[in-house]
């Protein structure tokens, strides 16, 4: 009894019951337990919940799922391990589930310090002083303020997105992809990945520069001593390439072998950064009390390289005598006072200035404004005069400190911006945070505020403490090869040198650790098919292949070898990423999507747009050609994902924009019908399905593609007989078949399936309600019912005639291709041939427009267009041809023109025979649907009518009839065979005239267009009464008999083509 009850309940309300065919939603909010019905009913016993027990499968009790709702944490897209572990646990409850470690990081350790570590980097130690010297305090402060404002605005937008729900691993990529869709997400994700990868190259190059210039110059493989100009620069770059490749290989090996050690050393590297910055501030304070001694030797107003001499003077007094110094010997040909010396050396004095005069010295006023240099220019001291003969060539240039690159404002922006990146470090760790929605905004904004304060104060303090020529000395050549910022540090320059070296090494390791994981997250999302291989890794999930690709791309930056050249590249990619973070926040705010409910409230769409504008401006300020390259890369990735990527539905903002734009466009279309210049066939394709819900006429969609070429509206519709509840599954299968065929035939449009009690009503519903608002179809494409003469298909051809009537009543155009199976597929090509248009009546110009549209497609492109029109006896065919040529010229349509003359002729016996056969068939079909008594009465009435009208004038079985529709005295004859004696007289003389027209036109068309690739022909209107439907089909059959491909065209009653521009 219990088993029976269970079976019965499952049969009525179980998975196989009616209306429960949809798969369950995969969600933590839905209880997926597979308890028996008895257990489920027991769950509701005594709980006053019996009213809802039928919905237990899909709607669990709130009390049973509150715990899981409160502790719900989203999983990264593509990660299946957690779900598989849950399934295994449900299948084998005896196995003990390993304890999951709860997130424990707070704001300080989880967000603030990682952001500080990522933001402070190599640029602060190696290029900040140089930027202040070149750009001046005002210019540098503006650059710092602009860049920091950009990151602050981006952080505000990022905080809003990050607090709008759970953000899994993937950080910025996840936020952008889920906010802007897979196309933007993939494109920006790749750009962010490339930026992180090139950042690794920049940090490695910075570490090598610190090693070879300041720590261990003698380790250079390509010796630079004695070289000058381009040779010295090439040797330096080669050293950077060799050592950079070695360090990159070592770091990649470390990351591959033990990434956990990299994470453990992160705090050590962070301590190095903080200690170095504190040492700088301590040095600034010390300069106010006791400035350090860092003399700089100046010849005239030019800064001398400090190597090679010990005393900054030409001569010195020693033992009551004057002797020359090493500096004299550098510029003169001997050590004697009467030696021949360099012209500039002889005419100018040598002076020594303090490189760090101190914060109270007033040097700030001298450093307020910029001092931009061309490559090879001397570093000159402002305010000092020098004697120089412009006609004398410059000699001994290798003894002066020279500018190594041409500097300008935009270059400084590109070099500096990487020093403010790294604001995403906190959001990337969202899965490890105890309270991500609180920690990410507070920690990120606090980190940016701290670093911005440090940078802005550093600009002012550097300008106030350090001499201008020392600031512009990028490699410290005038201060004994010391790191310029190191000369300011206390207690020793080595604090900065060692600290910055370890911090740059740590930052490089972090980049090589983070970039492969970002690529792995993108690969596992399956939005970029060719990157799937990089989603794989070692058994513990480490991205081995992604690390290999990252190291290869990083090597490109190493080969570039110049820190100043690599920095603008990664600036582009980071700026693009930040720009789309701001765009995502602005769109979500403006679209007011229901799911946009961020906990962080201090945001506004105007701030996001300002941040986006700043990012876009900075991209072109830094380097317009790099910006274009970055955009081209992003655009190519976007289009690739759009065409080849996996379809994803993430509820993104771009979909929201599409909906808003579609609504706006539909409302605009409602304002009135389109102008004739904008008219194009918006096609409703009516297809019929077989018993297996497969399309019977797939070539209809091939023709649709050739007519539309992806432009305008296309609706592909069909009807399923039945009721919605009983036949919903069939309708879904039919819609899948339609979509699959549309994809195969590359038809861009919408599919629509209606369920109706009969096909006639279903087709009528499609014609009436297809489309939305002003975006409705104006043309119906339906195939010719080729088996209409068979009695079992009687209903089908009557439905066809009803479609003709309804489109005529709705003022829609109608296209009826005959012999649709003979039409070309999209892969075929006609290399020659004609498209013939038989323009008999004017119904808006559809006959002119359709061949033009077809010839835009590659199938018909080589075909030529011919237009035929028919002249009657009283028409001037010559003038008609001239007028038609002029009309086509104004329409800008190239076509051959021919006027066919059709003279009045006697109606042939064959015409009468065809008419009699047609009427006989109609009568027989009619009688097939009559009762026995009705049939006898019908035959008797026909016999009586025949006997009263037949005159037997001769014995030769010639029957003649005087039609009531014909004038008196007119007699028509036709031979009758033994089968036709009962129905021999033609009952309706208008049928004879119509058949005569059809035969004559068919004869002319066959003569002119039998070899044409396609014939377009005016379609006659349907009969006004339903008694002549069989005859109407016969007329159309006779009209098109013998032609391979015919497209019957019926206009919609409005002009669709115009001669005006």
Automatic annotation (TrEMBL):
It comes from the Eukaryota. Residues 15-36, 942-962 have a biased composition (Polar residues). The chain crosses the membrane at residues 105-126, 201-222, 242-259, 265-284, 400-420, 440-466, 545-563, 569-590, 602-627. One of its GO terms (biological process) is chloride ion homeostasis. GO terms for cellular component: plasma membrane; synapse. Keywords: Cell membrane, Chloride, Glycoprotein, Ion transport, Membrane, Phosphoprotein, Potassium, Potassium transport, Symport, Transmembrane, Transmembrane helix, Transport. The keyword Signal does not apply. Residues 111-284, 402-684 form the Amino acid permease/ SLC12A domain. It is found in: Cell membrane. The keyword Thylakoid does not apply. It catalyses: K(+)(in) + chloride(in) = K(+)(out) + chloride(out). Residues 698-816, 830-1061 form the SLC12A transporter C-terminal domain. It is a multi-pass membrane protein. Residues 1-52, 74-100, 942-964 are annotated as: Disordered. GO terms for molecular function: potassium:chloride symporter activity. Belongs to the SLC12A transporter family. K/Cl co-transporter subfamily. This is Solute carrier family 12 member 5b.
